[in-house]
Amino acid sequence: MNKVCFIGGIHGVGKTTFCKQLIANLNNFKHLTASEIIKKYKNSDEFDTKRVKDIDKNQLLLVNGLKKEKKNSNILLDGHFVLLDKEDNIKKIDINVFKELDLNCIIILIDNPQNIKNRLDKRGKNTLNIEILKKMQELEIQHGKEIAATLNIPYLEVNFLRNEFPLKIAIDYIQGV
């Protein structure tokens, strides 16, 4: 049976970079981002901002797309537990989405909101301020923990400010699941 490990965190925390480092150290894993899967199975180019028009529709595309993508592969799926809607409201992604993704484990990446803002600013399209980033990260962590507890799956926080060897911690964790 193939594993799906969800790597969660807010925009700019470093999910994709971290997943690429993990893939270089793990055998038989493939890295996918939730946004790549949604884009692949969506007939639209509306991914120009960090705000999502139809969160529920996108999550359905993610669930159905992942089922097609994970054949014969272990997956590191990087994505979010919360998103900003078009009105700048932080919305929790429905727990049923995560049930349907059939996850084996969850890792949440955490960093200082100022570091996150700096990364987003370097990308040139940042419209998120420190306060919204703080609130999003708090809710991301809270909702990720709730989902792990409800689904009874392992959960790990990787805090780039506190963990001396975050990559080794995550590799050991994934290999132990």
> Could you list the spans in which at least 5 consecutive residues all have pLDDT below 50?
none
- CATH fold-level assignment: Rossmann fold
Percentage of residues in strands: 15-25%
Query: Could you give me the name of the CATH homologous superfamily?
Result: P-loop containing nucleotide triphosphate hydrolases
Topology:
Elements: E1 4-8, H1 15-25, E2 29-33, H2 34-40, E3 51-52, H3 55-69, E4 74-79, E5 82-85, E6 90-92, H4 95-101, E7 105-110, H5 113-123, H6 130-151, E8 155-159, H7 166-176
Parallel strand pairs: 1-4, 1-7, 2-4, 3-5, 7-8
Antiparallel strand pairs: 5-6
Helix pairs in contact: 2-3, 3-4, 5-6
Which key phrases capture this entry?
177 residues; alpha/beta; Rossmann fold; five-stranded parallel β-sheet; three-stranded mixed β-sheet
Write structural notes for this entry.
Helix 2 crosses helix 3, helix 3 packs parallel to helix 4 and helix 5 packs across helix 6. This protein is globular. Strand 5 and strand 6 form a beta hairpin. The protein has 7 helices and 8 strands. 47% of the residues lie in helices and 20% in strands. The longest helix is centred in the C-terminal third of the chain and has 22 residues. The model has no long low-confidence stretch (mean pLDDT 89). The two termini are 12 Å apart. With 177 residues, the chain is of the alpha/beta class. Strands 2-4-1-7-8 form a 5-stranded parallel β-sheet, with helices on both faces. A 3-stranded mixed β-sheet has the order 3-5-6. It has a single domain, classed as 3-Layer(aba) Sandwich (Rossmann fold), CATH 3.40.50.
